[in-house]
Amino acid sequence: MANSLISEVRQGRFWITGSVGIAGALLAGFLIATAGYVGSAVVVMLPLALLVLIGILLEPRFGMLVYLQYSFLINVLGRFAQIDFPFGVIVDGILVLTALSVVLNGKRMEWHRLNHPTFYLLSIWFMYTLLQLFNPEAPNKQAWLIHARPFSLHWFFVGFIMLVTPIQRSDMVILLRTWLIWSLLAALWAFKQQYIGLTPGEQLWLDTFGAKTHLLFGHLRSFSFYSDASQFGAEMAGVSLICLILLLERKQWISRLGYLVLILIYFWGYAVSGTRSALFILLAGYPFYLLLKRDFTKILAGGGAAAVLLGILLYTNIGNDNYQIFRIRTALRPLEDASFLVRLENQQKLANYLQHLPFGAGIGTSGDAGARFSPDHFAAQIPPDSWFVELWIETGIVGLTLYILMLLAIIGIGTYKIWHLNDPWLRTMMYLFIAEFTGVAVMGYSNPVIGQFPTSSIVFISSILFTSCDRWDTPVRKPNAEQVPASW
């Protein structure tokens, strides 16, 4: 009787499994037949999406890995996918699911780490942007959601998740390698654009939208597979700084040679982007790294090398025959640049408009969201051309001051934590993250890349890493499962 019962159960499972399989096959066939390539993509991606969903719910660390990878992939999808889809919404879904995973796995989460000054800072900024929903100057609440996400929502979610999740040292290595590999692919694609040519889709984008800002005096500003050349140039400058620090910190010559090659590739990627303001990631990040080292000899040597380079760019015409070098040089002479003078004029107009609006015109009233939802609003008439100017317009002088103080406090917390680290490997990793963070923050005056992928994700993740780095510190370096070998 027992054998009969087991047989019936197995037959029941067979029919259930078979029915589900047949139904799935019929659905797949229907999607492919009716929706063509899109249906085929859905058939392929649906099982993968299900596996990713399960993985995120089981392990928050996996969710952060997906968030990181998708922050780079979103640009590829936006550039090459021939469908009209808001790919940015997927980022929201990943972060919400990861936060849910934190709750579901609450027993092994380190909840006491929310008692952290960085989380308090992010919470205050998040609450301020939330209160902006009631700003009477803002005409559209949907526009608020579009800009509040890069302003504060994503950063708040990343801070919450990363502080309580038991992040491992090996996760930092994954972050660094992901960053360098995606950037290398981006640089190679930019060289292809610059020296071989554009794809038909890229050429169409350039002809219809991008030529005004990406084709200057007959020279292409390479944008790779990023949203635009500014975002690409910022990333190239950022990873150039990362590799420069690694070059100085590593002892083995073979490693130094490898990082030197990467510096040359990334820096030339920055050059072909034509993004002059990205130079300030290097001009701010590198001196800050030297300051963190507190090594007087290296400060003098590094300062001397930087002074020679700046002197060549400022006071000579060496290399002007090359357009990329010429354009980099113009970044150091802003008062001779017509576009910079126009920015100053626009900022004066905004100052007159905002003098009686201490809390700003409302989140979502400028830039792309303003042009879409409230094109007749004064704030939508003047391009911000800067992350800080955009914050000033939408959150007022109160919001801008709060944001800048938050950035300075985060850098201060990170500096204090790094100076008290014992582990040399960990200290070097934190040098990378905080130096790049500082450089991007300075670039925020002239460009809004802090609010764009993947820079925003890197900034959000790295800020939590270097302000809570003491949790990975070790009094004495001893080989164990938590430590990363020198081959990183």
Order of helices and strands: HHHHHHHEEHHHHHHHHHHH
Spatial strand order of the main sheet: 1-2
Figure out the total of helices.
18
Please provide the count of β strands. Answer: 2
Distance between the termini: 61 Å
Low-pLDDT segments? 4-33, 35-39, 479-488
Mean of residue pLDDT?
79
Main pleated-sheet profile: 2 strands, antiparallel
Structural class: mainly alpha
Number of domains: 1
Radius of gyration: 25 Å
The residue fraction in helices comes out at: over 70%
Oligomer: single chain
Shape: globular
Written overview of the protein:
There is one protein chain. The protein is mostly helical and 488 residues long. It has one domain (112-472). It has 18 helices and two strands. The protein has helices at 2-58, 60-80, 88-104, 117-131, 141-164, 169-195, 200-214, 229-249, 253-273, 279-293, 296-315, 323-330, 338-354, 367-373, 378-381, 387-419, 424-443, 455-467; strands spanning 215-216, 219-220. It has a two-stranded antiparallel sheet. Helix 1 (2-58) crosses helix 3 and helix 5 packs parallel to helix 18 (455-467). Mean pLDDT is 79; it is low at 4-33, 35-39 and 479-488. It holds the Pfam family Wzy_C. It is a multi-pass membrane protein. InterPro entries: O-antigen_ligase-rel_domated (IPR007016), WaaL-like (IPR051533). It comes from Nibrella viscosa. Keywords: Ligase, Membrane, Transmembrane, Transmembrane helix.
